[in-house]
Amino acid sequence: FIIKYNEIDKMSLGKIFKKNKGSQKVLSTTGSEIDIISLVISILNKEPRPKIFWEEIGELKRHYSVSIIIDNSISCFGDISRDHSFKIIRELLSPLIYLEISKLDIILTSNKSPLILCSDVDSQSCLKADSPLWIGLFKYLQEPYYGCDLSSALNFVYNINKERNEYTKRIFVLTDGLYERKDQAYISRQIQNCTQLDMNIIGIGIGSYPIGIENIFEKVIYTIEPSNLLLGLSGFFEQIHVTTTEKMIGFEQGGNHQD
Prior knowledge:
Elements: H1 10-16, E1 24-28, E2 33-34, H2 36-45, E3 53-57, E4 64-70, H3 74-77, H4 82-93, E5 103-108, E6 115-121, H5 123-126, H6 132-141, H7 150-161, E7 168-175, H8 181-196, E8 199-205, E9 219-222, H9 229-234, E10 246-252, E11 256-258
Parallel strand pairs: 4-5, 4-7, 7-8, 8-9, 9-10
Antiparallel strand pairs: 1-3, 2-3, 5-6, 10-11
């Protein structure tokens, strides 16, 4: 099930998860993160060029919190939709094995409370080939639910990520978005709460008919060919100025984005 390293789209993966944090911090005269103790000392000593800011130096490393929600509903994992949904999961999870993601959460929806397959663990140990996570993942996805509660899974992800202040946050929600209009509106408000706290959240369409995702997410992607997933996702992280709504529906080989 796991994609081999030499088959991963490493260029796209590098754009999605850029190395973003220095290996150590030193005090500097410029920056944005103030050290309060150094600030007080500099005021007392009346230093002309005080070193009161923390600056990251050294080799850059990846410092991410990644949360993945999988909508385990009948419409996503029924007979018609199952094949596409599993392939998307494979394309999203496999690359994380080869990255040092220190905070990984994988959550499945149910018709009650969300099923937490893993939380606050590193990706390499959690997703290795002999990890028990794979057994649990396949077991639960072969028994999808009617009336899944996506909002409770989002609430769980929101609560754990708001405490991870030092991490760059990526949240991927795999769903077809086929919810009642009132439920879509409520889920959309939860997503807005996430984005207000700098949580980068993207809806990934799964199944055969994911038309509901455009009504829920500001950023959405759906590709008929799952092997294009990383290439499509990388487009969200290439632009300097990000628009409010980014949609790549029907992303296909050749780089055509169809809205």
